Amino acid sequence: xxxxxxxxxxVAFVKIVYSTVKINGKIELVPMEWYADGSxxxxxx
Length: 45
Known about the structure:
- The protein is mostly beta strands.
- It has strands at about 15-25, 25-35, 40.
- The chain has a three-stranded antiparallel sheet with strand order 1-2-3, with no helix packed on it.
């Protein structure tokens, strides 16, 4: 996973989206950061 802090050409943050993940038989929503270039990164808590 690449770090955005090292990128001089910072990409505009668009919004937070949620991805569903099944963990131990339970479905959980995982918050993700969606950027203008189409990339998605797991949100740091």
